[in-house]
Structure formats: C-alpha cells, structure tokens
Amino acid sequence: MGGRNSKSKGDVLPNSLPQNWPNPSEEDIKECPTRNIIVNGPQGYLFASNFIRTSKYTAWNFLPKFLAQSFHPRKKMANVYFFLISCMQMIPLITNTYGIPTVLMPLSFVIFVDAIFAALEDLARHKADDLANASKALIHDDAKGSFEETTWSNVKVGSFIKVLNRDVIPADVIILAVKEKTAIAEGRAYVETKSLDGETNLKMRRALKNTLNEIKVDSDVKKIGHGEIVMEHPNKLIDRFKGTFEITGGEKEVVDPTNVLLRGCTLRNVDWAICLVVNTGLDTKIMMSNTESPVKTSSLELRINVEIKRVDFYLMTVCLFGAVGNFVWKNQEMLDAWYLKWSTTDADETASLHETDFKDYNATGDFLLSAIVQFFYYFLLMANFVPVSLYVSMSTVKYFQATFIENDVNIYHEETNTPTKVRTMALNEELGQISHVFSDKTGTLTCNIMDFRKCTVNGRSYGKGITEIGKAAYNLQGDTIPEDILAGEAMSREHAEMHKQPHVNFYDQSIRFDLVGANGDEQAQALEDFFTVLALCHSVIPEHDEETKEVHLSASSPDDEALVCGAKFFGFEFMDRKQGIATLRLSNGELRSYQILEMIEFNSTRKRMSVVVKVDDRLELFSKGADTVMIPRLSEKINQEKLLDDTCKHMTAYAKEGLRTLMICKRTLDPAWWEEWHEKFHTASVDLKEIEKRLNGEPNDIDLLAEDLETDFRLLGASAIEDKLQEGVPECIADLANAGIKIWVLTGDKVETAINIAVACRLLHPEEYMEQVVIAGGGDTNTKKKLVEKLIDSIRQFEEDVKQAGSADLVKPRALIIDGPSLIVAMQPEVQPYLLRFTQCCKAVVGCRVSPDQKRQMVHMVKEKVLGVKTLAIGDGANDVAMIQAAHVGIGISGQEGMQAVNASDYAIAQFRFLRRLLLLHGRWNYRRMSKLVCYVFYKNIVMAITQFWYAFQTGFSGQKFYFEGGIQLFNIAYTCFPIMLLGVFDQDVEEKMLLKYPQLYNNGIRDAFFNSKVFFHWILAGTIESLVISIFPLYALQQTGEPNDRQDFLPSLWHYGATSFTLVVIVTNVKLLLNQYTFPWFCTLCWILSVGSWFASAYGMTNVLQIDFDGYKVYEDLMRNHSYWLCLLVVTVLLAMRDFFY
Amino acid sequence: MQPSRRPADTPFKQQRLNAWQPILTPTYVISTFLLIGIIFIPVGITLLSQSNNVAEITYQYDGAGAPAGCKITANNEGKKCTIDIVATEDMKAPVYVYYELSNFYQNHRKYVKSLSFSQLRGEMVSADELHEDCKPLDKVTEVGGAGVELKLNPCGLIANSMFNDKISLPQASKWTLDETNIAWESDVNDKFDNPEGFKQEECDCPGGAGVLTACTSLCGVTFDCGQKGVYFQDPDTLKCYAYEYPEDATTQYLFESYPLIVYPAGPSPNVKNEHFINWMRTAGLPTFRKLYGSIDTDILKGETISFDIDANFDVASFEGTKAIVISTVSWFGGKNPFLGQSYIAVGSICVALAVAFGVKHMVSPRKLGDTRYLVWKEA
C-alpha cells in the first residue's frame, strides 16, 4: 500500500487500480498489489462507479468518433481511397468534374449506411445500459439502519446490499449472510449463472462463516463492526477469486469463489442474501470478460483484395498508356493545332487565335509535366475501376441472406424453439466453400442427453437391447445381430414402459429380482451398494418446487443426472442434501439419511469423484471414475481379479456400443486414519497457495492428499450411459461426404467408442469398403520415427493403389483414427507434413481422446498448411470454443451444454443435421450469389469506365469524357444497383430439391469454381471487350444520322455519342445480369425494368434542365428522336448478349 | 414459456417463390437465334437501301489534295474563290449544305471545357471567373490598339476558333441558300443570350445621308452611341439597326471577331448567330460536319451548283481539310451504310450459329437434366 494511502491532496482519493490499468507494468502492481475495501467505514480509495456504459458513442461524439473510425487507414482502405479520389477531384488541374468532388456522394452514402448500422447497434447498447443502470437494488442505509431501494448505478464498493430470491445481482459481491428456506442456517445460497457462462444448472455458494451467524436481520450489518477486505485486482476469470475478509479483532477468513456472487447471475433457492459489494461497474468480472471475438473475413473477400490489386494494376496500365499516348500524340500531331493554343506564356495569352502564329510553344519539359498530370486525370476518369458500391452492395446483400437463413423453417428446431442464428453474416458465402468439417462428438453428433442404459455389478451384466451404435458395430464387422439380443430387448420393453423415467432407458427385469435376493444375498448387497454409490456420489443439486412438492434435479453434468436417475429407477431416490446430510428414499418409502463428510469433485485431470459418507457407524468412501484411473487404485489386498476381468469385459462390450462407462468403487475407511487425513486435507484446501497451484494445474497438496484417500478400492461394478445420436446425423454426414467435404470427428472418447460412433454416423465404413489406419495407444507409434514410417507407408500404399486403379475415386477410401497422445507426437514439425499428406488421402479422420487445445491445433494446422482449404468447426461446449474460433467458420450447437460455443460461433444451429441445409443449400446459393455479385460489380464498372478510355483514341488522348456527369454518378446507385442485389439475395441457380438430392453440386464451392482468378479475369476481359464495342460502334453507327426535322442541325455531337454509349453500358450490363440470373420472381423483373427505365427517365430529365447539364442540354431529347440511336442499341445489345446466351 | 420463434412458413421467407425459370434448351436457343437472324437481315437490307438512296456530294476545297483555288495558309486571309459542284444524281429538296472539317479535334478536353456557361447565357461574369473557365483564352490585345487588353465575349477556345469561311451562292444562282433555323430552337432560346444591357432597335435606312440621321437620332436618347458601333446595316436584309453593348470599350464581342459571319444586330445578333450556336455544340469525332444551310429547290442530275467562298479558316497548319458537302436525307438522317451492314452481319452470324448449333444438337444431343454431368472428379 505504501504511500498510496496518504490523502495529501485534499479529498481526492487515490485510484484503487494500479497505474496504467488495464495493462499495468510489474512495478505498477508492486506499488499497488491488492484491492483494499473497508467494511463499515469510509473507503481509502476511489472505485469505479457501478454506472456502466458499454455503448461506444454518445449523441455528441458520434460524428467525430465514427468518422475517425470510418477513415481508419488500414481497416477501411476503400473509404480512404475514395476520399483521396474526391480530394483529387477538387484539384483544378486534373479534375473532370469541374472541381466538384462527385465521388463524395456515393462515398457519403456508404458511410451513411454504415453509420445507421453503427447507430442502431449502439442504440441497443444504450438501451441495455439504461435498463441495467436503472434496475432496482436494495442498499443498506446507515442512517435508517435498513435496506432502501435504489438503482444499480448507485451501488458502491463497500456498501451492503440485500438480494432477494430470483433477483439479478448488481455487482460482484461477497455473501455475508443468507436466509435459507430451511430453518437451520448453513449459509448456502444457489446461483444461476446463465448470463455469464450459459449454464443452466444451479451452482452452490456459501456465506462467509464469520458473518453468517452474526447477521440475522437488516440492522445487524452495522454490528459486525469495522473490517477490511484485501483481495486481488479485478480480472475476467469467472471461476477465480482470491481475497481475505477480516473484522478488526476477529479471525481472518479466506474468501474463495464459492463466497462470491457475480454481477449478472441470479440468486435462487434462498429468501434473501446480504452481501458486501467488492467490484462495481467496469471492474466486475462480467464486464472484464466482455471481449470481442476475432473478426473473420470470408475467403471470397480476401480473394477480392487480391483481385483489387490486379485491377488497380490494370487501371494504372491504362492510365499510363493514356498519359504516354497523350504525350506522344501532342508532340507529334497536335502542336500545330492553333485552336488549342498550347502556349501559356503571358504574351500569348492575350492573342486571338486566328491572328497569331503559335509556333513558339514551350519546351518539351512542360509536356512531360502535363503527361504526369494527364496520368492522374485518367486515374480520376476511371476511378470507378474499384467500385465504391461494392462494399455497400455486399453488406446489404449479406444482411438479407442472413435474414433468409434465420427464417428458414427447415432449420428451426421445434422441440427447443430454436431458429438458426447468424452471428457473422460476413461468412455467408464461406458456407458454400467448406472443404473440411471438424466436429465435436458429444452434444454435436449426439444429443448429450444421457440415458442410463446398462450396468455390470459384481461381475454380472444387466441391461438388454442394443444401441444404434451397437448395431452399426455389428454391421462394421459384417455380422448379423444375434437374435437373443433383439428378443431380450423386446421382452423387457414392456417392463421399461411401465417404469418410464427420464434419462433411463433400461430393459432388464432380472435386476429387480436380484435386488431382492434372487441371485443370492451377496449379489443383492452388491447391487444395493452400487446404487447407493450412484445416489450419493454426484454433484447434482435438488431444487424443491414448493407448490408441487416435486424435486427437480439441477446438474452440471448430464452423466451425473443420468446416474442419479438410474439409481432412482431402482429404488434409490436421491431426495435432498442439506447440512452434510443426504437423504435417499427407498422403494418401500423409507427415508434413509447419510452424513456426507467430504466431497472431492470431478475434474478432467482427476477423472473421478469421491464422497466420504458415514453409514451407521462405518466410514465409507464412494467413488466413480474412468476405468483408466480407477483400475490402478483397486485394492490388491482382496481378491477381485476375476471380478475385474468380468467387469472389464463388460465395459469393453459397452464401449463398442458407444456407451459411456464409469467404474464404481468403494472403500471402508479406518476412523482414526480418516481423522488424521481429514485434518491435513482441510489445512491444504484452505491454503491459498495450494488453491492457486491447483488452479494453475501444478502439483499440489490437495490432489496429493486426495490420492492418498482414493486408493485400496473395492470394485462394485460399472455403469453404462448412452448418449444418443442426434436425429439425421448419419444422413447428414453421408451427404456432406458426397459433397466432397472431408469430415474430422474430434472427441475425448476412447478409440473403440469413437470408431463405433463414427461408424454409426456413416463416417467410417466396414473394412471391406474402407481402409482404416489406426494410430493409437502408444506402442509402435509413440516415437517420431516410427510414426513417420507408418505415415509414409500408408501414403505410399495409397498412391500405389491409385496408380493401379487409375483414379482416386476407384480406390478403397482411407480413414485415419488417431488418438491424443499420438497426436502430440504427430503435430511436431518433423512429423506434421506426413500427417497432413496422409490426411489429404483420407475421406475421414477420427481424433480420439483429444484435448480442446489439440482440437484447435488440428484446425489450425489444416487451415494454415493445406492450400485452399476452408475449415468449419462445429461444437457445442466450452471445450470447442478454441476450435470454433480458429476455423474459417465456427458453428455452435445451441443445445444442452451452455452458451459459450454459441457465443464464440459465427452461426448457431440447434441440430447437427441442419448443417446439411446450411452448407449444401444456403452456403452454395450464397457462394454463387456473392461470386456473381462481386464479378458483376467489377465488370459493370469496368465496362463503364474503360469505355471512356477507348474514346480517348478519338480525342487525341486528351481524356475528354463523353458521358453526362449525372449518369456516371447515378450508374452505381440507380441504373445497375438493385437488380444485382436482388440476384445476390434471391437467385437460385439450382433449386432446393436438386441441391439436397445431389450433394455433389456443392463441390463447385470447394473448388472455388464460381470465384477464382480465372473467372474474375474472364469477367474483366468480357468487360474490356464489350466496352470497346460499346465505345466504337456508336461512333460509326451514328455518323451523319439524326432526325432531320425543321432543317436544324441534326448531326450527332460529342454528347450524342456519349449518351448512346452510356445507354449501351446500362443496357448491356443489365442484360448481362439477366443472362446470369436463373430465377425471375416478379419483383426482380420489375426492379430490372425500373432500373433500366430510370436511365432513360433521368437522362431525359437531366438534359432538360440547363442548370444541371449545360453541355448536354436537350441532347437526349434530340437523340431519342434519332432512329439510328434505337437501332444501334438493339444491334449492339444482341451482338454482345449473343456470346453469353450461347453458353 | 417464451413465445415460439418458429419462422413463418411463407413462400417468400422460405425462398420458394413462384418465379419464371427459363431453361435454355437447345431448341429454345436455336429458335431464338433463327428468329433474330430472320428479323435482322431484312432490317439491315432496308437500312442499307435507305442509306444508298441518300445523294451526297463532298467537295474538298482546302487541305492536302484540294485544288489550289481556295487554299489558304493563314487565318483570316480573306481569299475569295468559287467552287463548282456537279450533281451526279437528282437531289430532291431540301438539300442540306454542310461544311466538313477533318483532323480538327473539337472533342479535345482542353477545347471542350474552354467556355463560360454563364457568359454565354448573357450574364456579366467577373474577369477572374472568365479566366478560370475559359483558360487559356479569355482576353485579347486590341488589334492595332496601343496594347489595350480586351475581354473576350464569349471567351474560350471554342468560341474563338469558330469556322469563319463565308459560304454563299452567287447572286445569279438558280438556288438560294437558307441559313436560318439551322440551330436548335432550344439552344437559341435558352442556351445563348446576349449580355445584359444589350439592346437594339430597327431604324429607317432609306439610304444615303438619311440613314445616319434616322439611326443617330436615337443616340443620346435611348442609346449611348459610344465610340464603337453606331448603327448596323444587315447586308442580307439591308435593314438598319441601332444597338448598344455593355462595356463595349473594354470588350471584344463575337461580331467584332467574326464580322463576316456574325452581325451585331438583326434577327440573330452576336451569340444568337446560328452558325456560332452550331459551332458551339462540340463534335464527337475529329472529322465532323456542321450544317451551314439548306437549299429549297431540287438539284437535278448534271446541274452545276457554284458556291462563293470567302476563305478565312486555316486548316493547312494542322494538316486538316475543309470540304463542302451537299446531301439529301433519309428518315434516319444522312448517308450511313454502317448500321445496315451491321444488322446484316449480326443477323447472318445468328443464323450461322443457329445452324451450327442445330447440327451439333442433331449429331450429339445432350439430354436436359442429365445427372451424369454432376459427377465430379477429385483432382
């Protein structure tokens, strides 16, 4: 704290945050290492207000701030480019618009549209902010000694607040006391964290022990006396909290995450909680963790940037040609043109043209300068090469495409009321080009709704029937499913229907007989133990509905929920867990209580969970966990090898069916040993240092002590839970594979389970159709050298097969199955190229036992190292976030496991099978639409701009424009703007039915068939050639023609030729659009007619007002009377459309 | 329970709108091409014959290859000459008389932009603005004066490079050349106007001394007859006018630059002059014609029509040519075979393509919707 505590400068308190927040240096932190909050006294520091502002702009700073962003030199290249052009248009020397920056008009339109979107977005934020700031909170009023209602924005650090049941918490607070629904005060509160992490299950929180019993009524908060909280600085880690709470003269108490309620969570299952505010406003964890996900750009847009450079080069070449032409022509041909008065000296300036001889013009040097000026002049004349309108058109079209995706009723999930959500509309077209799909398994391919399906207890397997995955496994081996399995399932079905329960799908009556001793007392006891463990060893929170008296289970793990439901099914119903007493209701209605002494929770490194329970006078340790961690911990003192053998056999069979297995064990503890152990464990688990180590995944005393406890197990059996495949997954995967998409399934499951699920999904096929290369389980592939050898071998074999068969299509397809540990080796730089090469030979890749980061690494590897791939990652859980963000397109399943995946995703769908429609239909449509749009927008602008260049050959390369300026400005806004946008939103080259029936059509996207350099070049070339015809044809066709009425001069002028060419530009580009369009709903046709018609109308209108166009005054009216004009339009249009029509 | 978020199942939202989906079947393509060919070829033939019916005679009288009679080497030479044109076929009235210039870049950027709209519309424009608009020609040194600078009105390259050869028919000619109504009415009425302050009044000019009296009597009364124009007698109509231009002493007006063509007063004074107005509409190509007048009587085959030329416009220096063109018109204007030819050409291509495509279709027909074409090969 040091000097920061001194209040030298009057009343100004020092800031509670270190200097240079949010990126303090180490020294800054050293100077201010902790956040100190005074309880019941004036604060020594200044804290952030709880008034929040997430909005970016205010009414006052919107304009300057938004403009500054719109002209950011790197992020908004195009805007800056056009702004420069408009500046150049104001330079008299090179302007072609009489010094008026006409490009500003479309540019301001673009920026205006952007501004509207930004403003709307910000307005929504303002509203949300206002709503949050004005929410009601109860703050303790020191004077009145009670809690008074006020708004969230008035909540201050150090104040006491009272939160009622189902209230949203206004700031990060420490719970001091709670009023529970039960009479006994335990200090337990429950919290729903949906808005924070999207998880819907309740989480338990506790009040501080020191204050829990001190505060019973509102006025008690003053009685606890003066104190201090010392805690870490604000951070965004939502499951971390480090601090101490100390009442002067009292005992120091550690504050951990379970004592803290975070802003945005909802309090549940208590009457009220009195809390002390510690973090407010921007310092709260929810605000700190509000980070923007990485901005993704579609490959098509990246491609555009490359093409823009080429187009720019083309533009420069044209300009250079014009400038050189101007220079040469001027020196060779035009020097004698007295009517152009080349000399610029003062003496000559006053000389009349007809009277003076202009032989003494200036030296060539000036001409060179003028050639440079000419270059920029041409540059301006053809600035439309890079179209202003492209980006507006693109984002508008994408917006509507996104709307149509979201409104597709076929990818709306009725059961969960979830439509598809487009979160990044910029990637609409990327959906049509996906070459690799990386899919999570649980919750993505499967429902993540667990059903208790089978179990093995004391070496006896219960549960009949077979899962879909199991059937697929039989198919894989080419076997038929044994009759008795099917029969057993049918027999037991009736029984199962009678006792129908959620999360249980168990077909076997014999277990009930065995429970009552049909197979001996030993078996009955083992079954009882088994189900008692299931009913007690879990982290499910029961929620009592007061009205219906029903118990609702809230579980963070669906596995736990299924196991508890399974136990209930067999008469071991978990009722409640209060004050360390868990209550079970047995099938005969008897309530049985168990005292729970300790609980060591499940995590991904431990892979097991344990509870210590006092049963009568015995101390029992109940555990469940993955076989890999449980088997080494089995007791060797008792003979259970046969049992283990049987159990393992059963578990392997379950795994083949795709069931998730857990081993169930127990251990009887010696009370004396337990006392000693418990003391040590307690010391370690409140030690901040140990907690810190544990959080960081370092070795720590807590885990070591847990290991001491969890050993010497007696095996009871194993449970098997089914995670059902989602509806339509196999068909979807088959279609995606047919579309040429490579599918990688990345899962944490065991190799056997993963293979069987992959088979059930039709990702893998039986051996005779597909060669499976399995790299797993260490052994022969655990060294780099061996792995490389195996990969090279596989590649060579594949290539030989291809050589023999003649085509890659005729070879038996390959699949790679690789597990996490092997991947660690395979991802090393020396091995990676071979891995990549082999995966390119494979139709499918299955990754087993992979960690979230390995998922990301694999996506990253394919994305970076394989040329031209477009990756899509799909997942539903927090462990998929890294992968979703790494891939070109991230898709979240809005389902069971919370919102993190969805929040990180670009598209959120409710079911995996929707992917088929999203990619094959919307993706492909949108890819083609965007490709056409981009090509067309470039094409039409090139036709328009370069026509003027061809005309320069007639004007001595002077670059005189011959269009009406108004026409040029309206070209991209009115004449050619809307039809292409409608094409971009509505056009369907292949109808829905066909696209879904023939997934092969998708392959166009993977091969970049609709937008690549070649296609783009073709469009540019077509534009160039067509503009040449458009420019030259009227010059010949219109000569000497006109309507000879009243004997006035009917001959065409510069502006007549220009207007004719421009009409042709409008018609030819619009006809080109028609030839690229497949479907014509009535409004497209109408829009097309209006667009073309608007040129005629506006040309007539503009040239009828002297003030708008002096040069072109009445020219268009005159031109319309000229028959040759119309005849010329027709013949040129037919000539140019012929080529496209013919294809 | 939250409200259903099920999207509406309407044809629009589900992208299942009824839409016209033309399928380019071979038959459709072939018949379209045939149809176009069948329409285009006769249209082309008609156009071509229309063009061929136009009688057009061009006589080049200056520039390389022209007879020496009318050739000049400098501007404002004032050489007078006569050219004789023999009609090679009957020319039905009205016969249009054009002058044609070649290698004259009226469409040059420097040239096109060198004018002041406001000034042409009769507004008094500041010298600065004129300098800007009319670069590089807004002032002139008075001819014969003591280096006095005069503002040009109208200023700019176009106005001050006006074609100033005088073309006329000899007094004795059988035909008359009508030089009125050759400019667009809209131009005459809206686009060009004499400066604010210009006024004119017809006065009696019985000839002799009376002329002076009749017109000069207006001086000091309604006209400020300064040192310049006092009155003007129109050489064509022989009518007399008193007139006054603003800032006359410091300005060189169009009629002063081109006294032979442009008159200070009369029915089309100064910038209302129709030759000038036609000149001001810049041509699109370096070889161009502008209407000079029309002849109302037929010229029969074998007849010779003579034109008197007062040659002032120099084309030799920039290697251009000058010509007189007399021509009749068709319903689409003058002689132009190009359009007819292009219709015939495009029509023929269409027919040829239709035939070629038809043959191919007969030999190896591709069934529509053949899914074999959907198969893709992995590269």
From TrEMBL, chain A:
- Domain P-type ATPase N-terminal, residue spans: 46-102
Q: Where in the cell is it found?
A: Endomembrane system; Membrane
* Membrane topology recorded in Swiss-Prot or TrEMBL: Multi-pass membrane protein
Report residues binding ATP.
D440, K441, T442, F602, K624, R660, T747, G748, D749, R849, K855, N879, D880
Q: Which GO terms describe its cellular component?
A: endomembrane system; plasma membrane
The reaction(s) annotated as catalysed by this protein in its Swiss-Prot or TrEMBL entry are: ATP + H2O + phospholipidSide 1 = ADP + phosphate + phospholipidSide 2
Segments carrying the region annotation (Disordered) are: 1-27
Its name, as the record gives it, is: Phospholipid-transporting ATPase
Q: Which organism is it from?
A: Triparma columacea
**What are the top taxonomic ranks of the organism?**
Eukaryota, Sar, Stramenopiles, Ochrophyta, Bolidophyceae
TrEMBL record, chain B:
Where does the sequence pass through the membrane? 23-48, 338-359
Source taxon at top rank: Eukaryota
Q: Does the keyword Membrane apply?
A: yes
Q: Name one GO cellular component term.
A: Golgi apparatus
Per UniProt, what is the membrane topology? Multi-pass membrane protein
Q: Which InterPro entries match?
A: CDC50/LEM3_fam (IPR005045)
Q: Which UniProt keywords apply?
A: Membrane, Transmembrane, Transmembrane helix
- List localization entries: Membrane
Describe the family membership recorded for this protein in Swiss-Prot or TrEMBL.
Belongs to the CDC50/LEM3 family.
Q: Which PANTHER family match?
A: CDC50, ISOFORM A, CELL CYCLE CONTROL PROTEIN 50
Output this protein's name. Answer: Cell cycle control protein
Q: What is the scientific name of the source organism?
A: Triparma columacea
The organism that produces this protein has a lineage beginning with: Eukaryota, Sar, Stramenopiles, Ochrophyta, Bolidophyceae
